[in-house]
């Protein structure tokens, strides 16, 4: 396989922009109509995802070793879309037909062989990982919404009870899908694992967002949602040892941070935790009661609220990190940052400028959309090519 040739050919194809996914899905659904129902009803956003990701992955197959972990996660994760081994050849055929179509007279027998071999390798790793995952966990969990609490205009706190225990670690994210929407998005449990297995999630409705709008405005207690296996380890306390913590949360980025605080409370280690919670205005501290309760119950926890834009109080800090850095020197601590991509990027840059080193700053990273944390992990490891922002 000539990897450089594969990459060059994919770049030529990708230059055709939106035409590429359009052709890919038309080919796939025409030749295999039964596959159509596995995709969301509204394909507008999906168009950007699968084929672009596949094209990039296949054209970087020379880095198969570095990609292997990502591909295994992807294969195991795709069980939630009801993807089975027999679907892979159909997708491969549509991908090759797409590349052939856009390369036109630049398509050669050698390229055909390279693309078939590269896709075969990717499909094999993903299929084997999916099979291995069958032994460990179901493809998805059905969960009942046992409480649905609207907090302000666009945020809801949902308590979910999976039919079977869904094991996770504080700081991870889980896939959530509503049966009527059939798209999956990641949300972070806002609690440490509980004896009764319930999971709290904090959802902010993105304007026009398919899943978040449904979860905030179109759900009630008693409804069912589907959950998928937890992913991501960057925000867990695994890497922090027993160090004291500085936690910086903005918006619904408070959710995984709340889980971390609960974990510290549960471990009884006595480590000190400084928490800075940010919001755009005072009314957007949607979980202040819970935060205040934690602060009064935990002597090792200090809490500072940071309002982003508050015209009544000129001079207030915009980001939690700015206020934290003005308050003290936390360089002996492990720092956890969670919020929108912009807030995380700002915090990481400010901490770095202030002399904090990369190993003590924990965040999900910014700049990835296709497959959430699995893709993000690959981006950070340098094994995924690019991506763009998430919403919190
Ligand atoms: C690891 C991780 C953890 C997360 N945890 C949380 C959490 O705890 N809480 C939380 O609220 N969120 C969280 N998110 C974000 C969440 O996963 C979703 O991305 C978010 O809820 C938006 O999903 P959606 O389906 O509503 O929006 P989408 O339908 O994906 O749309 C996102 C935005 O793009 C716009 N859009 C849609 N279609 C198009 C189009 N065709 N062209 C242009 N623009 C378009 C929409 O208007 C919307 O503003 C997390 C994300 C990640 C990666």
Description:
This protein is of the alpha/beta class and 392 residues long. It is built from 12 helices and 11 strands. Helices cover 39% and strands 18% of the residues. The longest helix has 26 residues, at 109-134. The structure holds flavin-adenine dinucleotide.
List keywords for this structure.
392 residues, five-stranded parallel sheet, six-stranded antiparallel sheet, oxygen binding, 2 iron, 2 sulfur cluster binding, Elongation Factor Tu (Ef-tu), domain 3, 3 domains, Globin-like, heme, alpha/beta, Rossmann fold, binds flavin-adenine dinucleotide
Helices and strands, with pairings:
Layout lengths: L2 H12 L4 H13 L18 H10 L4 H14 L9 H17 L5 H26 L6 E11 L3 E8 L10 E5 L6 E4 L11 E6 L5 H8 L6 E8 L13 E6 L3 H14 L5 E7 L8 H10 L3 E7 L12 H8 L6 E5 L2 H13 L7 E2 L9 H9 L12
Parallel strand pairs: 7-8, 7-10, 8-9, 10-11
Antiparallel strand pairs: 1-2, 1-6, 2-5, 3-4, 3-6
Helix pairs in contact: 1-3, 1-5, 2-5, 3-6, 4-6, 4-12, 5-6, 10-11
This protein binds flavin-adenine dinucleotide.
The site of flavin-adenine dinucleotide has 28 residues, from strand 4, strand 5, helix 7 and helix 12.
- Tally of helical runs: 12
* Total number of beta strands: 11
Helix content bin: 25-40%
Shape: globular
Distance between the termini: 41 Å
Reading the helices and strands in chain order gives: HHHHHHEEEEEHEEHEHEHEHEH
**Cα-atom Rg, whole angstroms?**
22 Å
Mean pLDDT: 87
> Which strand-content bin applies to the residues?
15-25%
Small molecules in complex = flavin-adenine dinucleotide
User: What's the CATH topology label of the largest domain?
Assistant: Rossmann fold
The largest sheet has its strands arranged as: 4-3-6-1-2-5
- Computed structural class: alpha/beta
Number of folding domains?
3
Enzyme class: oxidoreductase
Catalytic activity: 2 nitric oxide + NADPH + 2 O2 = 2 nitrate + NADP(+) + H(+); 2 nitric oxide + NADH + 2 O2 = 2 nitrate + NAD(+) + H(+)
Domain Globin: 1-131
Protein name: nitric oxide dioxygenase
